[in-house]
Design brief:
single chain; 125 residues; alpha+beta; Endonuclease, Chain A; binds zinc ion
């Protein structure tokens, strides 16, 4: 997967399909609590490319609607756990998606520098 490779190239480390997380995100950054789902245009009803198959239309409509509802449920569960959720459509430019993910990761991870900045300074007497 292009997105994973690019994230890795940029030095970001992540878990893949972590079973302990709701929805088993495609990519999860544990310390930053960023969960990424790469959504297929068909299975997740992309507004641009989501189509209903000609045969068994109603069955498909119900199934695809359930998929989307489940996505939102998992998002809500992750949100409750303090995670931020990113959904990337499979049709999206992977490099742009990685830019967004990296930005989020940077803003949310607890870097040593930030931790140091948060520790109380010695008081000047
Ligand atoms: Zn699409």
């Amino acid at each position: 997967m292009l997105i994973r490779r690019e994230l890795h190239r940029r030095g970001l480390r992540y878990r893949v399909n972590d079973r302990n997380l709701p929805g088993r995100p495609d990519i999860a950054f544990t310390s930053a609590r960023v969960a990424v789902f790469i959504d297929g245009c068909f299975w997740h009803s992309c507004p641009d490319h989501g189509v209903l198959p000609r045969n068994n239309r109603e069955w498909w409509r119900a199934k695809l609607t359930r998929n989307v509802a489940r996505d939102r449920e998992k998002d809500a569960e992750l949100d409750t756990m303090g995670w931020v959720v990113v959904h990337v459509w499979e049709h999206e430019d992977p490099i742009r998606a990685v830019d967004v993910i990296e930005e989020l990761w940077r803003s949310r991870r607890r870097s040593p520098a930030r931790r140091a900045a948060m520790t109380p300074r010695p008081r000047v007497v």
